[in-house]
Design goal:
mainly alpha, about 70% helix, about 110 residues
Length: about 110
């Protein structure tokens, strides 16, 4: 395993764990503000209302996935700025490896990932 691959693994793991912690904290506070009660600890529990379990699963799953994706994109941007190339396995869809260097330029020039 190349050192760049190890660095990316560590960076992406940190981004995923950090983003999940932030999302959980925000979700719990938002749920309590919206409903007046704590989020279900176990939505599969039959004592939890079905609508509450479904809503919690939908809201929390969507929020965690979005926050994780944003954190991974930010980490990939940092990796590309630091190394001059995209992290392993994050080539743009439908692009060949010969166009990969232009992908890095697109990422670096893009304001969306700053």
């Amino acid at each position: 395993m190349a050192s760049g691959s190890k660095a990316w693994s560590a960076l992406s793991l940190g981004a995923a764990l950090g983003s999940a912690a932030v999302a959980k904290k925000a979700l719990n506070g938002g749920w309590k503000a919206a409903t007046g009660k704590n989020p279900p600890a176990n939505p599969a529990d039959p004592d939890i209302d079905l609508w509450e379990a479904v809503m919690w699963a939908a809201v929390s799953g969507t929020a965690v996935a979005i926050v994780k994706m944003l954190a991974t994109r930010k980490a990939a941007n940092y990796f590309a700025k630091s190394t001059g190339h995209l992290p392993p396995g994050l080539e743009a869809d439908g692009k060949s490896s010969s166009s990969r260097s232009s992908d890095t330029g697109d990422i670096l020039a893009s304001g969306i990932n700053d």
